[in-house]
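Students often ask why we bother encoding 3D structure as a string. The short answer is that it lets us treat folding as translation between two languages. Here is a chain of 55 residues written in the first language.
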Amino acid sequence: MLGNKEGTFVVHVNKCENETWQGQVTWADKDEKISFRSALELMSIIDAALNQEEK
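And here it is in the second language, the structure alphabet:
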């Protein structure tokens, strides 16, 4: 079931290597910074953060 999940994330892409992004995402609502090694990992981090917020 999809809910109304909201969050503010700042994405800083350091480089594009192997056809995907590497960088750092900041969850502005909690001032947490997490590095990511691919666009898929970035989406996974954001999804996990929003699901954590729901609990």
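Translate back mentally: Residues 3 and 20 are 28 Å apart (CA to CA). Keep this in mind for the problem set.
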